[in-house]
Recover the amino acids of this structure.
C-alpha cells in the first residue's frame, strides 16, 4: 500500500513540476504577478510530495518488502538497518529518486529564501527548476520506477552490493548530489538572465551563495568518495581517474571557476558573458556526469544497471538542456554588455588566469574521459586513457594554477603592483624552499618531482598566509591592532584563506603520498615479522569472526615502534554470505598525519597469507585539506554581504509581489 | 538474467582484486623489479574497469605482470616491452595512449584551450575602446588641491 501511495505522490509531484514550469514562465511573459507568485507554493508542495515518495521507498526497504522490485534486487532481510536505508539509493531507481529529492529541495529553498530576489527573476528560476524536475520525474516514472511490484513475491532479497554496504554510501551520494544538483540553481539563474537579457552585479551577488553551497557539498562529496575508495577497494589508491570520478571532478572545476568569475562580475561588472556561460557549463557537466554514470555507457561500481532505453532517455535530457541553454546563450549573450575595465596585471587579470587554467583542466579531463568512447564509435579502435595520461596533462596545469593562486589576493583591483606582489611572493618562495629542503633532509631525499611538488604546496600555503598577515598588519602593528583588524575582516576573507590554504594542504598530501610512501609485499605465517618505515610488525595469525551478514578472516598485526607496542591493526577478507561475495576490509591505523595500511591477499600453498603493507606519510592531508576548503566555503557563505543580497522589505512581504 | 550475470561478472572483477602483486612474482633484482612495477602501472588490465595490472588481481593481470617481468629479464627496454604487449593486445593495453594521428587531438587539447583562451583575451582587449587619460585643467587642479588641504569641504560638494 505504501509503495502505491508513494508512487501516486511521485505522479502528483510530476504534475506539480509541470505547473511549476508553465505557470510562472507564463506569468513572466504576461507580466502577471499572480501567476508568477504561484511558483513558490507549487515548489513547496512538489518538495512535499517527492519527500513523501522518498520516505515511502525508505519504509519499503526497512520493512524488507520484497514485493517491490527494487527492494528485492537491492536488499536482504539480514542486512543491518543502516544498509537497508542506504540501499534505497544504492541502485539506479532509488538514486534517481534521490536526485529528484535534492532537486525539489533546492526548489523549495529558492521558494523560501528567494524573497529578496526580484519577482521576475524568482519566477524564471523556479520555472526553469520546474522544467528540470518535470523531465527527471518523467524519466523516473517512465523508465526507472522504484515502486514496481513483482508477483509472486520472492521469499528473500538479492542483497545490496557488498562494496556499497558501508557508511560511505550514507554520506557520499547525498553530498555529491547536493553538489551536482545545487548547480541547477546557478544554471536557472543563468538561463533566467539570458531570457531577461539583463545581468548585473546584483545577479552575481545573488548567484554566489547558491554556487558556493553546491561547491561546498561537491568538494566534500568528492573527498568522501575518494576516502571511501581508498579504504574499501583495498589497494591503497585514492584517485583512479576513473570516468565516474572525472564526471564529478568536471563540475567541480567549472564550479570553482564560476565562483571566481562571479567575484569579478560582482565587484567590477566585468566577465558577464563568461560567468553566465560558466553557470550553464557547470550544470551541463553535472548532467553529463549523470548521463555517463546512469546510462551504462561506462561500466563501474557506480553503474547499477545497463538499460539502453534509459541511456537514450538521459541523452535526450542532456541534449534538451545543454543544447537549449547554449542556443539561448548564442542568441542572447551579445545583449549582455560588459562594464569594468582593468589592466592585465590586476586582481581581475589573476582571476581570469585562474579561469583559464581551470577551464583547460576541465577540458582535458572531459576530452580524456570521452575520447576513447568517441574514437571507438568513429573508427572502432579501442584505446585507454588512464591515470598516466591525466597525471601528465592535468598535473602541470594544476601546478601553474597553484603558482598564480597566492598572487591573486595580493593584487589590487583594476591595476595591480607587480613588484610589490613579487616581493611578497619572494618571501613565500624563500620560506617554501627552506621548508621543502628541511622535509627533504628529514626524509633522506626523494624523487625530484615530488620535491618540487612539496615546494609548490608550501609556497601556496605560505603565500596565502602572507596575504592574510598583510591584511591584519601582523608583526607590523601592535598585536591588539591585528586582532581588531581580524575582527573587522569580512568572513569571506577568512573563507578565501582557508580554501586556498586547503588546496595547498591537499597537494602536500598528494605529493607526500606519491613521493615517500613505502610498500612491502610479503607472504607471512603466524609469528613472522616485517618492518616498514619506523615500524616493526608482527603477524599474529588469522582468526574468524562472524558479523550480521558476513564472515571475516581477520589478520592481526602488532605494530611496534622502537620496541614499544603502539597499535594492533586488524585487516580482513570479508565474505558476504548472501551471494558469497568477497570484499577487503583494509586495516588502517593513523599515526600523526600518516597511515599504516594493511591489505590481505590470498593464502599461499605453504600456509602463509600474502599481505600488502603500506606506510603512507601525511596522506590524511588529502582529505583534511578538502575539509579545510569546505570550511572556508562555509565561512564565505555565512558572510553577511552574501546573505543580504538586496534590502529586504521591513514588514511581511505581501502575497502578491509587485511587478517590476 | 543475462543482464544480471553481466553485472555480477563486472562486480566480481572488482571485488576479487584484493592484493595485486603477489610475493612469488617479485624479481630478485630490486632495480629490475622497480622497473617492472613502474611499467605495470601504465598497463591496463583489460578485463577490469580502469585498473592497471599493478593494481588488479585478475588472472589476466597476473599473466601480464609475469610477461612484463619475463621480457625485462630477457633484456627488453621499457619501450620494447610495451611494443610486445601492444602487438599482442592492441593499443588498449596502454593506459597512456601513444601520440599518433588518432590521438593528436587528445594530446593537443590542454595546449589548444590555453592558446584559444589567451587569443580570446588578447582579442577582447584589442577590441575594447582605448581610454584616454585627459589631464586636469589648471582650474580643476586648483580645486583638487584645495579639497586635499581641507577635507571638510567635501561635504559642501
Amino acid at each position: 500500500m505504501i509503495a502505491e501511495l508513494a508512487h501516486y505522490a511521485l505522479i502528483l509531484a510530476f504534475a506539480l513540476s509541470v505547473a511549476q514550469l508553465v505557470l510562472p514562465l507564463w506569468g513572466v511573459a504576461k507580466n502577471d504577478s499572480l501567476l508568477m507568485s504561484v511558483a513558490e507554493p507549487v515548489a513547496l508542495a512538489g518538495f512535499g510530495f517527492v519527500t513523501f515518495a522518498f520516505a515511502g521507498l525508505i519504509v519499503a526497504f526497512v520493512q524488507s518488502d520484497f514485493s517491490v522490485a527494487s527492494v528485492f534486487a537491492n536488499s536482504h532481510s539480514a542486512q543491518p538497518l543502516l544498509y537497508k536505508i542506504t540501499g534505497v539509493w544504492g541502485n539506479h531507481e532509488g538514486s534517481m529518486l534521490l536526485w529528484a529529492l535534492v532537486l525539489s529541495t533546492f526548489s523549495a529553498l529558492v521558494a523560501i529564501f528567494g524573497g529578496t530576489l526580484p519577482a521576475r527573476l524568482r519566477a524564471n528560476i523556479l520555472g526553469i527548476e520546474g522544467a528540470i524536475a518535470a523531465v527527471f520525474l518523467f524519466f523516473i516514472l517512465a523508465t526507472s520506477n522504484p515502486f514496481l511490484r513483482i508477483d509472486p513475491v520472492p521469499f528473500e532479497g538479492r542483497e545490496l552490493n557488498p562494496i556499497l554496504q558501508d557508511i560511505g554510501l550514507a554520506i557520499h551520494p547525498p553530498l555529491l548530489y547536493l553538489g551536482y544538483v545545487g548547480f541547477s540553481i546557478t544554471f536557472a539563474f543563468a538561463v533566467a538572465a539570458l531570457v531577461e537579457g539583463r545581468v548585473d552585479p546584483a545577479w552575481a551577488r545573488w548567484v554566489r551563495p547558491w554556487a558556493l553551497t553546491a561547491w561546498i557539498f561537491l568538494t566534500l562529496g568528492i573527498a568522501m568518495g575518494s576516502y571511501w575508495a581508498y579504504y574499501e577497494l583495498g589497494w591503497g589508491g585514492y584517485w583512479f581517474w576513473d570516468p565516474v570520478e572525472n564526471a564529478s571532478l568536471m563540475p567541480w572545476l567549472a564550479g570553482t571557476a564560476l565562483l571566481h568569475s562571479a567575484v569579478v562580475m560582482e565587484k567590477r561588472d566585468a566577465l558577464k558573458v563568461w560567468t553566465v556561460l560558466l553557470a550553464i557549463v557547470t550544470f551541463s557537466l553535472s548532467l553529463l556526469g549523470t548521463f555517463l554514470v546512469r546510462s551504462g555507457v561506462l561500466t563501474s561500481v557506480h553503474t547499477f544497471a545497463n538499460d539502453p532505453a534509459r541511456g537514450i532517455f538521459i541523452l535526450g535530457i542532456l541534449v534538451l538542456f545543454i543544447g537549449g541553454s547554449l542556443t539561448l546563450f548564442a542568441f542572447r549573450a551579445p545583449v549582455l554588455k560588459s562594464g569594468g575595465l582593468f589592466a592585465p596585471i590586476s586582481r581581475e587579470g589573476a582571476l581570469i588566469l585562474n579561469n583559464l587554467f581551470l577551464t583547460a583542466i576541465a577540458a582535458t579531463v572531459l576530452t580524456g574521459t570521452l575520447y576513447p568512447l568517441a574514437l571507438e564509435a568513429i573508427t572502432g579502435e579501442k584505446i585507454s586513457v588512464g591515470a598516466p595520461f591525466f597525471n601528465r596533462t592535468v598535473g602541470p596545469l594544476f601546478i601553474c594554477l597553484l603558482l598564480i593562486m597566492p598572487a591573486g589576493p595580493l593584487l589590487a583591483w583594476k591595476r595591480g603592483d607587480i613588484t610589490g606582489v613579487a616581493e611578497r611572493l619572494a618571501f613565500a618562495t624563500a620560506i617554501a624552499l627552506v621548508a621543502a629542503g628541511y622535509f627533504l633532509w628529514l626524509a633522506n631525499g626523494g624523487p625530484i618531482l615530488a620535491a618540487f611538488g612539496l615546494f609548490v604546496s608550501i609556497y601556496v600555503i605560505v603565500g596565502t598566509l602572507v596575504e592574510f598577515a598583510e591584511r591584519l598588519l601582523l608583526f607590523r602593528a601592535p598585536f591588539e591592532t591585528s586582532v581588531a583588524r581580524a575582527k573587522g575582516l569580512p568572513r569571506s576573507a577568512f573563507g578565501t584563506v582557508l580554501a586556498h590554504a586547503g588546496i595547498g594542504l591537499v597537494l602536500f598530501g598528494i605529493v607526500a603520498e606519491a613521493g615517500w610512501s613505502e610498500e612491502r609485499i610479503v607472504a607471512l605465517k603466524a609469528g613472522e615479522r616485517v618492518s616498514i618505515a619506523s615500524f616493526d610488525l608482527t603477524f599474529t595469525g588469522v582468526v574468524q569472526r562472524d558479523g550480521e551478514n558476513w564472515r571475516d578472516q581477520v589478520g592481526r598485526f602488532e605494530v611496534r615502534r622502537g620496541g614499544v607496542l603502539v597499535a594492533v591493526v586488524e585487516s580482513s577478507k570479508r565474505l558476504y554470505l548472501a551471494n558469497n561475495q568477497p570484499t577487503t576490509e583494509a586495516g588502517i591505523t593513523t599515526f600523526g598525519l600518516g597511515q599504516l595500511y594493511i591489505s590481505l591477499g590470498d593464502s599461499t600453498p605453504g600456509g602463509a597469507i600474502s599481505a600488502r603493507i603500506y606506510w603512507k606519510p601525511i596522506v590524511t592531508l588529502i582529505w583534511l585539506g578538502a575539509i579545510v576548503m569546505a570550511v572556508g566555503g562555509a565561512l564565505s557563505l555565512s558572510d553577511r554581504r552574501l546573505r543580504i543580497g538586496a534590502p529586504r522589505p521591513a514588514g511581511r512581504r505581501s502575497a502578491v509581489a509587485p511587478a517590476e | 538474467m543475462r543482464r544480471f550475470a553481466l553485472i555480477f561478472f563486472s562486480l566480481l572483477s572488482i571485488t576479487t582484486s584484493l592484493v595485486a602483486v603477489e610475493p612469488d612474482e617479485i624479481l630478485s633484482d630490486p632495480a629490475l623489479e622497480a622497473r617492472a612495477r613502474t611499467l605495470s602501472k601504465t598497463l591496463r588490465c583489460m578485463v577490469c574497469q580502469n585498473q592497471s595490472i599493478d593494481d588488479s588481481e585478475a588472472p589476466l593481470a597476473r599473466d601480464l605482470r609475469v610477461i612484463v617481468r619475463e621480457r625485462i629479464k630477457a633484456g627488453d627496454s621499457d619501450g620494447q616491452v610495451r611494443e610486445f604487449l601492444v602487438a599482442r593486445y592492441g593499443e588498449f593495453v596502454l593506459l597512456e595512449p601513444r601520440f599518433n594521428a588518432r590521438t593528436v587531438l587528445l594530446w593537443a587539447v590542454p595546449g589548444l584551450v590555453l592558446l584559444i583562451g589567451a587569443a580570446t583575451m588578447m582579442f577582447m582587449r584589442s577590441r575594447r575602446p582605448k581610454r584616454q587619460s585627459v589631464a586636469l585643467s589648471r582650474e580643476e587642479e586648483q580645486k583638487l588641491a584645495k579639497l586635499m588641504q581641507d577635507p571638510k569641504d567635501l561635504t559642501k560638494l
In short: Chain A touches chain B through 61 residues (CB under 8 Å). Chain A is about 65% helix and 10% strand.
